[in-house]
Structures are given as C-alpha cells and as structure tokens.
Design goal:
The protein has helices spanning 2-22, 34-38, 343-349, 454-457, and strands at 42-49, 58-63, 67-72, 76-81, 87-92, 103-105, 109-114, 117-122, 128-133, 143-144, 148-152, 157-166, 172-185, 195-197, 200-204, 209-214, 220-225, 235-237, 241-245, 250-255, 260-266, 276-278, 281-285, 290-294, 301-306, 311-315, 319-323, 329-333, 339-341, 359-360, 369-372, 377-383, 416-417, 448-449. The strands form eight sheets. It has a five-stranded antiparallel beta sheet, with no helix packed on it. Strands 18-19-20-21-33 form a five-stranded antiparallel beta sheet, with no helix packed on it. Strands 1-32-31-30 form a four-stranded antiparallel beta sheet. By secondary structure, the protein is mainly β. The longest helix has 21 residues, at 2-22. It is built from four helices and 34 strands.
C-alpha cells in the first residue's frame, strides 16, 4: 500500500511546489547570474528576502557602518548584517504611514522616524528605548553621535536631543527619554541631513545657508550663504574641511573651525547629491551627470567624465560605480576617470540587468553595493576577490571635527570669509522659559527657536 501511494505523494508535492513557485513575487532571473557579474569583475555577496505580508511593500533601504535597514509601508523596520545578509531583528514603528527617511546608528542605539514619531531602538535587539513626538513630519534622515541625536523637520526646524546623563560619580547613563538640547528655525523645510562633528554640528537650512552651531548649547558659530538650495547631505574631509553641495552649481570647501572658504569648485550644474570622500580624494557629481575627482587641499580638478545622468553609489580602491537614469550599472576608473563600462555595456554585453531593483544605497562607509526591489528582494554585490570590505576612511585617523590637544592652527589658502557669526537671537538654554516674541523667526531672517521648557521636556512623550 505504501509503495502504491508513493507516486501520488510525489505528484502532489510537485504540483504544490510548482504552484508555490508560480505565486512567487520574484521573477526567475531577478538574481543576477554569476557569469554576468563575472564579466564586470563582480560577484554576488548575498541576497535576502524581506518578510512581507498582504499588500506590504519595501519602500526604503539604508545602511550604517555594520547594518543594512529595510523599511516597509507597514511601518516595519528589518535589520540585516551588512556583510552576511543575516536578518538580525525586526521592529514595529507604530501606525502605518508610508513614509521612510532612513536610519542612523551609534554604538548602542538605532534612530528612526515614522510619521511624526522619533524612535530610539536598542542596536542589538531592536527593543524600544524611547519614542518622542516631534509634532510634525521629519524631512531628513536622523543624525547622531554617541550622546546626541538630531533631525530636520518640514516646518523648517531642526531639533537636537541629549541621549545620556552623567551622575555625581561621573558615570554616563542612557536616558529613557530624549532631552531637548536646542532647536533652530532655518527657513523652509530642511532636507539636508545634519552632520555631527564632535563638539559642533553643521546642517543645511531651507534658507540656502549652512549653519554651524555648538552641539551642546544653543550657540550659532557662523553661517555660510550660497546661491541655491543645499544638497541632500554635507560631507567632511580630514578633521576640518566641510564640503557643501549647492544648487547654485558650486561645491564649497569651508574650514570648519575658522569659517573661511578654502576653495570652491564650479561644477557647471546644480549639485544635489552628497559629495563622496574616499581616502584623500573627493568625488562630486552634478545633476547633469558630470562626475569629477578633486584634490582636497586645493579643489583642483583631477578629471571630469560625463555619466549620462548617473547617480553615485559606491567607491572601491580602483573603480567608481554609478547607476544610470534607467538603473543600469556604470563603471569609471578611479585613477583616470576613464569609462570602464557604460550602461549599454553592462546591460547588453555583460548581460547584467538591475532594472527591477528600484532602490539602492549610497554607501558612504565602504565598497559594497546594495540594491532592493519593492517586492522585498535585497541584493549585495562586491568586486571579485574582496571578502573584506574596504573602508572609505581610515578608522585610525582622528574623526571629523577633532580638535588636537595643542589647539587649532590657521589653515592657509582661504579665499574669502563666510557670513560672520551671529548671536543666537531668541535661543534659550534647555530648561529656561521661552523668550516670547523674540524667539519667533522674522520673515526675512531665520533665527534659532527656543528649546522646550524643562517641565515639558520631562513629560512622557505621546
């Protein structure tokens, strides 16, 4: 009897298996073939599937130094190991909103927003540490360091929070709710991710200016005026060169501590994407797709190459990788700017199609490439024979914003001063009462906004 039922069992298994495959949301050729990648000197590092239910879709991927994050329209955050693709944990961020702004992380926490809520999650487990009602919708990816977190908002505000307290014995403790450090009003919606730099924070305002402020108190050091909207992210080279992309077609290099413009680079078109810094090179791409390599000390152009409207995604020791407007891979030689493979070459000659992957990560940390589909497939690619990631910045060097024990030295070659430092009119220390009408920004001039009252700060967030 068992022998007679065996063929029927096998047949049912084959039918059910075929039916399951037919219902799969992934086409058969979605994962690139090894031969196609090999023709471009690449290999598949890992691929993973985000667990989705019903009509849930993946809407955003982002990464930090060690983790890759996938956010869905059901307000779920899935965290993967960036090197292995292993799913580490999943967290629910409350009500479904369909909005995702990316993730920031320090050594102990992950910071993410959903609608008007700001969350801190345990980095190892995803367990909630706190949540805070921002009162409006965020417009930037959060930024953080070990003791502060900040985010830009749609109402033109940027808010910073203290994450730790120090007891009488000098021991630091993580707060169970964020404490307001300062807030500034900087024009219309802030769309530039803030850049923490040790004791200083830089951020791009909606007023076409970059503000450089103290990290722990409401004090404006100076502002840099540009002729256009500030790009999506600022960047830093070394310990003190602040890089500012602007829609006025210029990349500004500003000394972080002296506020002087060291050099400018006229790109010929608006600069929206954040400049990429790798070792001792600066790469900038404008909206026309012109990619340039610059010397960090002088801003001198080493080479410029047109990329047909490309978008910079990754830098390796020898290559620069971009995506074209139709999502094909574009490869440029890092040393010379020579086009190694154009979009037609990667798609037609190599046979690599990434067009189904409608999301990718701009990797500011190392040489890996990550792509994703809204149906939940994540793909990681690396150059052949590179099992260890190549960091874009030497971790043994002092961080951006570092002040040496002997103090600062004036940098040579500055060409013009920025807008002089302005006292933070209307700004008050955290815990003090607001300054009434003085705290409101004038229509033609952005002013720091008052911090919340101490009692309000200590209330349980909604």
């Amino acid at each position: 009897m068992l022998r007679r039922s065996l063929p029927l069992w096998v047949l049912l298994t084959m039918i059910l298996g075929s039916s399951a495959r037919a219902q799969s949301p992934f086409p058969r050729d979605l994962v690139p073939r090894r031969t196609s990648l090999d023709r471009l000197g690449l290999e598949r590092q890992w691929f993973a599937v985000v667990p989705l239910v019903e009509t849930e879709r993946l809407i955003k991927i982002s990464r930090t130094q060690d983790h890759l994050f996938a956010q869905t329209n059901y307000a779920r955050l899935h965290t993967f190991d960036a090197e292995t693709g292993r799913l580490l944990w999943t967290a629910s961020l409350g009500e479904r909103s369909g909005l995702a702004r990316g993730v920031a992380a320090n050594s102990w926490a992950v910071f993410v927003t959903n609608a008007n809520m700001f969350y801190a999650l345990d980095r190892g487990s995803g367990r909630p540490i706190w949540r805070h009602n921002l009162g409006t919708i965020p417009t930037t990816t959060p930024a953080c360091d070990e003791s502060r977190a900040m985010v830009g908002l749609t109402n033109g505000m940027i808010e910073a929070f203290r994450l730790k307290d120090v007891d009488k014995k000098g021991v630091e403790h993580i707060r169970d709710r964020p404490y307001p450090l300062w807030s500034y009003h900087a024009g219309t919606s802030i769309t530039t991710r803030p850049l923490p730099a040790e004791s200083i924070v830089a951020f791009g305002g909606g007023d076409r200016k970059v503000w450089v402020v103290m990290a722990d108190e409401p004090t404006v050091l100076y502002r840099v005026s540009t002729g256009g909207t500030i790009g999506e992210g600022l960047a830093g080279h070394g310990t003190r060169t602040l890089l500012i992309p602007s829609a006025d077609k210029i990349l500004y290099a500003v000394d972080l501590f002296s506020s002087r413009i060291v050099w400018t680079f006229p790109s010929g078109a608006p600069i929206a994407q954040e400049p990429m810094v790798a070792d001792d090179e600066i790469f900038v791409i404008n909206t026309a797709g012109d990619l340039s390599s610059l010397e960090p000390e002088t801003g001198r152009v080493r080479w410029t190459v047109p990329t047909q409207g490309g978008h910079l995604i990754s830098i390796t020791p020898t290559k620069i990788y971009l995506r074209s407007y139709n999502r094909d891979l574009f490869i440029v030689d890092r040393a010379t700017g020579r086009i190694v493979v154009d979009p037609a070459g990667s798609l037609l000659r190599a046979g690599l199609s990434l067009r189904e992957y409608d999301m990718n990560v701009v990797n500011r940390f190392n040489d890996r490439m990550h792509f994703a589909t809204s149906s939940g497939m994540i793909l990681a690619i690396r150059e052949t024979g590179q099992p260890k990631p190549k960091l874009l910045r030497d971790p043994s060097k002092p961080p951006f914003g570092y002040i040496p024990p002997e103090g600062l030295k004036e940098t040579p070659g500055a060409i013009a001063p920025t807008e002089p430092a302005t006292p933070p009119e209307g700004a008050v220390e955290a815990g003090a009462a607001p300054a009434g009408d003085e705290a409101k920004p004038a229509p033609d001039e952005a002013k720091p906004a008052p911090a919340q009252k101490k009692k309000e700060a200590e209330k349980e967030p909604e």
